[in-house]
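We append the chain.
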Amino acid sequence: MRDSPGSLGHALVRDHTVYACVMGSRAFGLATDASDTDRRGVYVAPTPLFWRFEKPPTHVSGPLDEQFSWEVERFCSLALRANPGLLECLHSPLVEHADPTGRELLDLRGAFLSRRADAAFRGYAAQQLARLEADLRHRGEPRWKHAVHLLRLMISCRDLLRTGRLDIDVGEHRDRLLAVRRGEFSWEEVRAWSRALHEECDTALARSPLPAEPDHARVEDFLLRVRRASAALPVSSG
């Protein structure tokens, strides 16, 4: 549920966002004329707000439609766990805002990447598969949008493991994925593609240039410096 207008959450997004980007199909190279514009962002809650009994929100929906933001500590915590949505957020080609703190966060992108991404991306793909199988049981056919999400996640996972770099644009796979979304592939063909991607991920993981773990110390150093700098500023929200 979106925060009410004028809420602390909306004030934090309005006044303290350090990074904002467009995500979803527009960032993935899968947009059509009917595509929404999904916005994601990171805000830094002023440090003195944490000294109160009631803490600032860890995430905020709105104030724009299709907009969602995380407080910087929550964002870093989830990204260190290789949450696909947050890792992809840091690699969006459609950056709308980045102040000096946001640019420093972008410079940290590599610190969040590790072989943990294999389990995280496959886990999210498994959630999509469960939804698709539920659709087959109850509707007789899958929702093809979920099939595209599954395949796109697996492609990103494979390529990240292979190269050590995360590129979220589907590139040469665009036409094939859009055909899946239009229902032009059978469910058997989609499953076969998914299984092939899993096998390619297995091979890529064994020789991946990614470190076993993300660079927690580097990210924590960033977070501590952000908190210290914020503590010296006047509180303008709440």
